[in-house]
């Protein structure tokens, strides 16, 4: 199943987006709704709240009186922690239960206001952010929801900043215009990204081969890479010796194929095999077959594992390499040498552009890669000499 985290500042219009995705067939999990359900009359959650904060948090109908609870629970830090220790585990358990009940081919949309604040972004295959300028959100909260303006402003202040949201958002919807505008964008997201993403992950479907196409350097590449690295970090845990953004997209100013190369370094390939299933499920399916790196003049080849990103709009290559061969070090040295030597970077750019032009109609990148490799192999010797003279180590 595919897990989509849907979030955004209060009043941005998450519900509009969530409802449309649900109409398309997404399984909607609404955090706010669950938070209310776990403390409904008759629940153990409500009983525990009463035990902690007293009978006067209940209204005359026996239901939770939220303002009365807030007055007690937000009075001091200990009370706030007590409230969270009662509500959070119950919300977590119910959320996990709903996710586990979804079909294997489900696209789950988790509407979770505090996704950014809770550092939860890496737990999702994709994070969708709904945003609108602060003034627009305040106006909506006041006019449509009847909130007092100072309250609306205080709620917005307490939430994550736009920069914090930008960093984790794979998809950014600006919902400051008419609802129809964002709804059309949601329709396209469903058809062009979520549906094929889910199928790619479930069926472990590799990317279709294509001709080499070189894009100008994109300064968001490192930020996009960091989001993927964060997801891999969660899965790999202590099995990761290190996780890095490598390849041409990690070299500022270098044009490249718009595919992020990432490297997970493990102590042995047994560790890689143990992680294969979890990485695949997390959105990075393992590629079939045997994969290896050329041993650059040494006998034989260096085996590795290869995974690819399932997101059709964010191509990723994930190389899982063992510390037992020199390949992982070389993969870190080469881009670092290019970053430190702009002349070499520009020479490499010229080679890439020439080879991509020559092979623009191939339908695969194989010939392009092979011919480019002649320059790269020679460059490795210069990069090694540079490492020697500067004392560079990974
Ligand atoms: P939240 O992101 O806090 O869940 P809602 O989805 O409840 O926000 O939206 C807040 C309010 O703004 C609602 O009353 C909703 O109907 C309204 N709204 C949502 N999108 C738009 C839009 N594009 N234009 C005008 N009002 C909108």
Automatic annotation (TrEMBL):
InterPro entries in the cross-refs: Depp_CoAkinase, GrpB/CoaE, NT_sf, P-loop_NTPase
Gene: coaE
Family: In the C-terminal section; belongs to the UPF0157 (GrpB) family. In the N-terminal section; belongs to the CoaE family.
Enzyme Commission number(s): 2.7.1.24
Record keywords, A-Z: ATP-binding, Coenzyme A biosynthesis, Cytoplasm, Kinase, Nucleotide-binding, Transferase
Known catalytic reactions: 3'-dephospho-CoA + ATP = ADP + CoA + H(+)
Protein location: Cytoplasm
Chief location category: cytoplasm
Record's protein name: Dephospho-CoA kinase
Binding-site list for ATP: 11-16
């Amino acid at each position: 199943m595919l897990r989509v985290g849907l979030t955004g500042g209060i009043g941005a219009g998450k519900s509009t987006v969530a409802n449309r995705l649900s109409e398309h067939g997404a399984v909607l999990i609404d955090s706010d709704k669950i938070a209310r359900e776990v403390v409904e009359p008759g629940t153990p959650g409500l009983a525990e709240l009463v035990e902690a904060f007293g009978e006067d948090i209940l209204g005359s109908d026996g239901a939770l009186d939220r303002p009365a609870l807030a007055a007690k629970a937000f009075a001091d830090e200990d009370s706030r922690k007590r409230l969270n220790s009662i509500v959070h585990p119950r919300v977590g358990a119910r959320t996990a239960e709903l996710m586990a009940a979804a079909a294997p081919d489900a696209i789950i949309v988790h509407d979770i206001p505090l996704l950014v604040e809770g550092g939860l972004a890496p737990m999702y295959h994709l994070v969708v952010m709904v945003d609108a300028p602060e003034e627009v959100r305040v106006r909506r909260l006041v006019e449509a929801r009847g909130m007092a303006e100072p309250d609306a402003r205080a709620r917005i202040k307490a939430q994550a900043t736009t920069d914090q949201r930008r960093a984790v958002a794979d998809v950014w919807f600006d919902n400051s215009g008419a609802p129809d505008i964002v709804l059309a964008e949601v329709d396209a997201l469903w058809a062009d990204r979520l549906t094929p993403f889910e199928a790619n992950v479930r069926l472990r479907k590799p990317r279709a081969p294509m001709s080499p196409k070189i894009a100008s350097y994109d300064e968001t590449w490192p930020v996009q890479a960091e989001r993927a690295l964060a997801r891999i970090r969660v899965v790999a845990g202590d099995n990761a010796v290190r996780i890095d953004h490598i390849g041409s997209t990690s070299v500022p100013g270098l044009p490249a194929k718009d595919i992020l190369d990432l490297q997970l370094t493990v102590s042995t390939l047994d560790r890689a095999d143990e992680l294969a299933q979890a990485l695949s499920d997390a959105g990075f399916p393992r590629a079939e077959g045997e994969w290896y790196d050329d041993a650059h003049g040494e006998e034989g080849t260096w085996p590795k594992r290869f995974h690819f990103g399932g997101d059709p709009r964010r191509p990723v290559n994930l190389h899982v390499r063992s510390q037992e061969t020199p390949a992982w070090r070389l993969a870190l040295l080469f881009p670092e040498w290019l970053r430190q030597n702009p002349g070499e970077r520009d020479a490499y750019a010229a080679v890439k552009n020439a080879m991509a032009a020559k092979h623009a109609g191939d339908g695969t990148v194989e010939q392009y890669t092979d011919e480019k490799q002649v320059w790269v192999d020679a460059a490795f010797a210069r990069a090694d000499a540079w490492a020697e003279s500067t004392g560079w180590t990974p």
